[in-house]
Design goal:
Elements lengths: L8 E5 L6 E10 L5 E5 L4 E2 L11 H13 L2 E3 L7 E3 L3 E3 L2 H9 L5 H4 L22 E4 L9 H9 L1 E4 L14 H11 L6 H17 L5 E6 L2 E7 L4 E2 L9 E7 L4 E2 L5 H7 L5 E3 L4 H5 L5 H10 L9 H4 L11 H7 L4 H14 L1 E6 L5 H13 L5 E5 L6 H4 L1 E7 L6 E7 L1 H9 L9 E6 L6 H5 L2 H6 L5 E2 L6 E2 L5 E8 L10 H6 L1 E4 L10 H9 L4 H12 L22 H17 L7 H5 L1 H7 L6
Helix pairs in contact: 1-2, 5-6
């Protein structure tokens, strides 16, 4: 057995300007598989604890036990602090640091030598760097729930590696793991199974390290712990837990249905080992209120000028309230209508503006998205058409020229949805609303264009495995979709129930506001005569099918009000639209819908 004297002395600065505690690392294994850490008598201990400390299962209980036994007592050396009354041997550096600090800590990084080197530097073969978070599944290991049966009671996490040869060293590169998997699982796993095994084994053997967060799901609850030691390979009796790591688990699990959406998305990935580092802040805040998190940050002397990630990550993307100025700019009849559209987007995150041509659907979608997103940089527009495909919309292989060799080859290329989703999910962008405008959304085969993403429009808290890249993908919570649908092109009645479930529908029709009075408000703002609005009302009164009534945007252009502009617009844009609608019916469009006929139907001025 190696003694503590073979390691240098390590120091731990207590918070709030507190004194410095000292201890030594050993090679003696603790009960949970980590190396023990020794703190001598007379070392300072923080007198209080942070709110989350009760979740640190064994350390909290141990601290309470040591206080009750008098092994931690009021300090004579540091008034207002506590101190150790005798030598205490802890199961791990993290347990020692947690008891002394009264908070969860990564002992491998907070215990440092006099010249500032962390304890981690003295452990050979380990991979060190920023802490990571991981999901390891144990509730479906060959039909058994290892979480309840072994992991929680014994303080460990494991990975089945039934055919992996004995004596595998930690710290292997991915290529070295790939060779082992290819040789050891040659005839017992498919190609895709081997690919998954390489990723999972490499993560468990080489990327995980003491101090990392580990999560698992069992019985509808998420359990969180800290890895406290190195990987161990054993010949387990049932081959369900050949690779093991010691873990200090928190006392209580968290109800899965109450977890933040971003965390649920990551947890839904169908792999046995999944990196959760991107949602570490959401994990850190589980079970704590904002006030408790703020108190904890203050207690560990966090920089007050920096937002607390665990609080920041809880904020839903906020859509600003539409203003009277916006309503005036868009010539909407009342601000309350815009607020309702905004609320629909906030609730459903997907919305369709539908109506006849010329009702301003695309213009309104763009302007509203720019206002709600804070500018045009957060808005991307695509237009669907019958030949539009998944590869065009999301990702696919396309011919591209190599910038240096000039060689043309098919390369995986992101489409507009993937590009916008990647932008919205970047650090720093996650609380900024981003908008995808899909013009003429009903002109494409939606099931074909969206592919597996169609599922995500309804289940935003899930992720799916992508067809081409094989990545796990989820729609960011701050990504909103606004579609426009021309009812003259394809009736709204033909939209299937699947799409109706995924989108809120808002009508823009000449028969209702804000469209019915839009042209009249525009003419008034421009100081022009109201005759074009009267003519449009008379025209739409003669069109029986509401899906083919004509919208006001045809008459909201400067060219309409130059010499002969109204007659020209009516003859070349409005009448052809109605002639196509009545094709084969033998109706004289000019006689029924022409300007001369409509003007005759209008009441005389002053009548």
């Amino acid at each position: 057995m190696t003694t503590a004297d073979q390691y240098p002395e390590f120091r731990l600065r207590l918070p709030n300007g507190g004194p410095e505690a000292r201890g030594r690392h050993t090679d003696e294994m603790g009960t949970n598989g980590s190396r023990r850490f020794v703190v001598l008598a007379g070392q300072p201990v923080r007198p209080d604890v942070v709110p989350s400390f009760q979740q640190v299962r064994s350390a909290h209980r141990l601290r309470e036990q040591l206080l009750a036994e008098g092994r931690i007592k009021p300090s004579q050396t540091w008034p207002g602090w506590l101190e150790t009354a005798d030598t205490i041997t802890f199961n791990s550096p993290s347990e020692a640091g947690a008891v002394l600090m009264g908070s969860a800590v990564n002992g491998w990084l907070v215990w440092k030598t006099e010249d500032g080197r962390p304890l981690a530097d003295f452990l050979p073969g380990a991979s060190w760097g920023p802490n990571r978070a991981w999901l390891v599944r144990g509730s479906n290991a060959t039909g058994l729930d290892l979480v309840q049966r072994m992991w929680l009671p014994e303080g460990r996490v494991s990975l089945a590696a039934a055919r992996l040869r004995q004596g595998v060293e930690p710290g292997l590169s991915k290529e070295e793991v790939r060779v082992l998997v290819q040789e050891d699982y040659e005839a017992t796993a498919t190609y895709s199974q081997k690919q998954d095994l390489v990723e999972e084994l490499h993560a468990f053997l080489s990327r995980m390290k003491p101090g990392d967060t580990v999560c698992t799901v069992s019985g509808g609850r998420l359990y969180v712990g800290e890895i406290t030691g190195a990987v161990e390979q054993i010949e387990s009796e049932d081959h369900r837990s050949n690779l093991r790591r010691p873990v200090t688990w928190q006392d209580e699990g968290h109800p899965y249905d109450e977890l933040p959406e971003a965390l649920q998305q990551k947890l839904s990935a169908q792999h046995d080992v999944v990196e959760l580092t991107a949602v570490q802040a959401a994990i850190d805040g589980l079970g704590l209120t904002d006030e408790e998190l703020a108190d904890e940050a203050e207690a560990i002397e966090r920089d007050p000028s920096v937002e607390i990630p665990a609080i920041t990550v809880r904020r839903d993307p906020e859509l600003p309230e539409p203003t009277d100025e916006l309503a005036a700019e868009l010539l909407v009849h009342e601000t309350a209508w815009l607020r309702e559209v905004r609320d629909l987007l906030a609730d459903d995150r997907q919305l369709v503006l539908y109506g006849p041509p010329g009702t301003g659907k695309t213009y309104l979608a763009l302007k509203l998205a720019e206002f709600l997103g804070g500018g045009p940089e957060q808005v991307k527009l695509v237009q669907f058409h019958p030949s539009y495909s998944y590869e065009d919309f999301f990702e696919g292989f396309r011919p591209q020229e190599h910038p240096e060799t000039g060689e043309v080859a098919f390369r995986l290329t992101a489409g507009p949805l993937r590009e916008l989703a990647d932008l919205a999910s970047r650090e720093g962008n996650r609380h900024i609303p981003h908008f995808l405008i899909i013009d003429e959304i009903n002109r494409a085969n939606l099931a074909k264009v969206f592919g597996e993403l169609y599922f995500l429009l309804e289940y935003r808290n899930k992720s799916v495995r992508l067809t081409y890249s094989g990545d796990d993908f989820a729609l960011p919570p701050n990504l909103f979709v606004i579609g426009t649908m021309n009812t003259a092109d394809r009736s709204i009645a033909l939209v299937d129930a699947a799409m109706r479930r995924r989108f809120a529908f808002v009508e823009l029709s000449p028969r209702t506001e804000p469209t019915s009075g839009l042209l009249r408000r525009w003419l008034d703002a421009q100081g022009k005569d109201a005759e074009p609005a009267d003519l449009l009302d008379a025209l739409n009164a003669r069109i029986e099918d509401p899906d083919f009534r004509v919208g006001p945007s045809y008459l909201m252009k400067k060219g309409v009000y130059r010499n002969g502009g109204l007659e020209r617009t009516w003859r070349t844009k409005i009448l052809p639209l109605l002639e196509e609608h009545h094709y084969g019916e033998g109706i004289d469009s000019e006689k029924r819908y022409g300007l001369t006929a409509l003007r005759r139907s209008l009441p005389e001025p002053g009548a």
